[in-house]
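G., before I forget:
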Amino acid sequence: MSVGGINVLVDETRAIQDGKRAPLLSVRGVKTYYGNIIALKGVDLDVHEGEIVTLIGANGAGKSTLMMTIFGSPRAREGRITYAGQDITRVPTHHIARMSIAQSPEGRRIFPRMTVYENLQMGASVNGGTHFKEDLDRVCDLFPRLRERLYQRGGTMSGGEQQMLAIARALMSRPRLLMLDEPSLGLAPLIVKQIFSVVKELNERDGMTVFLVEQNAYHALKLAHRGYVMVTGTITMTGTGRELLENPQVQAAYLEGGRH
Amino acid sequence: MNAPHAMTAGTAAPATARYDWGAALKDASLAALVTLGLCIPIVLLRTDQGAGVDLLLRPRIGMVASFVAAVFAARLLHHVLLARRAGRPLVEQKAEVRTTPNAVPWAKMGLYAFMGVAMSFPLIVFLIQGGLSESRYWVDLGILVLTYVMLGWGLNIVVGLAGLLDLGYVAFYAVGAYSYALLSTTFGLSFWICLPLAGILAAFWGMLLGFPVLRLRGDYLAIVTLAFGEIIRLVLINWVDFSGGGAGISSIPRVTFFGVPFSADEGGFASLFGLTFSPMHRVIFLYYLILGLAFLTAFVTLRLRKLPVGRAWEALREDEIACRSLGINTTNTKLTAFATGAMFGGFAGSFFAVRQGFISPESFTFLESAVILAIVVLGGMGSQLGVAIAAIVMVAGPELLRNLGFLKAVFGESFDPNEFRFLIFGLGMVAMMIWRPRGLISEREPTAILKERRAISGSHVKEGHG
C-alpha cells in the first residue's frame, strides 16, 4: 500500500472522529508530469458532499492540470485520487465521466458545428438519454438563453452563451460533483455574476457539490465554502472562503487591483 | 495587390457603391503584363520542322495577344463581380442569412432528386439513344460514377463525419476486390456470399489500421494511412502465391441474377424472362447493383448520424477532449468509424471485381485514394448530396469533356478538344477553391429538429463574439 493510501485511511478516521463523512473527492499526494516537467508536486485536496470548493492561483500554477488529472488525462504519476470511496487514479477518462462527475473543461470546448440541442444530447450520452427531455427543460430553466437558441450552431453564439452551454452540457449527465474550469474566462462582469448565481442555486437547491477552478479570486472565494490556493504545483494555503478573502497574502497576490 | 473591391467595402458606401474603375483597370493591366511576360518564353516561338532536317522558328504574336487580352478581361470581370458583392446593401445581406435554414430541406430534396435521376438514368439513356447497345457507353459511365459516389460516401464516414483524414482508403477497396476475386476463384463461392464476407474482411482491416493510429490526428494520421494503402498494394504485388502478383487475377466469375447467369443459352437470364439475349442485361443489372449498394451506404450513414454512435463521430471531429470528458469512449468511436467506412469500401471493391472480371494491383494506386478524398473534400465534408455531385463532376466531368467537338467550329479544324479537357477541369477546380473553399455544400444539417420551430431559431442569428 502506498503512502497515499495510508493518508486516505488516516483522513477517513479523522473525518469519522470529527463526526463528518469521508470526502466525496479526495486527492492525496498527486504528482503529474508533462514529459519530464513536473506540473503538480504532490497535491492534497478534499471536496465534501454538498460543498462548493474553489481552487485559485495564477496562470500556470497547475489548476487546470489538477482538474484534468482528476479526470485521468494526463494521469497522475504518483498519488491517489478517490471519488465516493472508489480509487479512480487509473480509471479511463470516459469511465470517470460515467461515475456522476461532470466537467466543463477549460476554454469551454463546446462542439461548434453542432447545434445547442445536439451539444446537450452529447452531454446526456452517459445516461443513454433516458430522462433527456426532463433534463433539457431543467437546464433551459437555468439558462433561458439556451432555450431561445436550441437549434443554433454552438459556434455562432457569444462567449457567455457558449459558457452557459458548456455548463448546461455538463449538467445533462445529472452529476453529483460538478467541476468547472474558469467559467468566468473572458466574460463580461454581468454574465459572470449570472453564471455564479446559477452555480450557487445548483448547490443550495439541488445540493450539488461543486469544484470550481478560478482566476477571478474575489468572486470565487465569496461563492465558495472553502478554498485552496495553488502556487507552481503545490497547495500553499487553505481555509474557508471568508478566511482566504481576508488573508493579507491572498489579498496582495490575487485581489490587488480591485474587487470586480 | 491593390484590390479595388476592398476599398469600396471599407468606405462603407451608401446603397449604390461607387466603383473604382481606375484601380481595377490598373490591376487588370498588371495581370495582363505578367501574362505577357510569361507568354514570351513559353508561347511566342514555335519550332516547326522545315523541308529538311532544319527547324523553323515561327512567331505566334496573335496567340500571345489573345492570351493577354483574355487574362485582362477575366481579371476585370473578377473585380466587377467582387465589387458588386461588396457593394451589396446590408438589408440584402440579412435576407441572405435568413435563407440558410431553408438550405436544410433543400439539401434533402436534392438528395432525393439525385436518387430519382439515378434510378431512371438507364431508361432515360435508352430512350434518348434509342437502343440497348447504343446506350452502353452511358450506362458504363453511370456505373463508374456510382462506384465513386459509393466510395465517396464510404470515406465520408471516416473523413467527413469522424474527422479522421484517411489517405489510404483505396486499401479497403483493394481488400474488398481481392476478397471476392480469391474467394470465388479458389472456393467457387457466389458473389452474393462473397459480398458480405468482403465487407467484413475490409471492416476487419479497417480496425487493424485503426489500432495503431488511435493517438494520431491530422497530418500524422494522413501519413500513416497513406503508408497503409501502399503496404496493401505492395503486398499484393509481391506475394505472388497468394494474389497472383502484378499479373493480377483474371477470369473472376461474372455476376449472376441471384443465381441465374446472364448467358445466351437455355437457363440464362434472357430465356428465363422470355427476352432476346443482349449483353446489356448484365450491364444494366450491374448498374442497379451499384446503385443499390450506394443507396445502402447513404441510408446507413443517414441513420447512423441520428444514433448516438453517429453523433459521437461528429463530436469527435469537433473536439476529442470534450468527448472524453463527456464519457464517450473515443477508442471505440474511432474504430467503429474506420470499420464502417472500410466496410463500404470493401463492398465497392467486390463490386469492382465482379464488374471487371479482372483485377491487379494497378487499380489500387494512391491516385485512387486521392480522387476519392478529393470527391469528399470538394463535395463538402459530411454532406451526402455534395459528395454525389462532386463524384459526378470529378469522374464524369473529364469524360464528358471529350465531347467538345463543337469547339472545332470556333478554333478551327486542327483543334483537338481532348488536349484541353484537363485544362478546363483544372480551371474548374481553381474556381471551386476560390468561391467554395469548404466544398460545394458546406452547411451541416442538424440531426435533431423539433417539430415546432421557434421564432429565433437555427442559423437566423449572425455569428457573435462575446
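Residues 189-206 of chain A form the longest helix (18 residues). The radius of gyration of chain A is 18 Å.

More on Monday.
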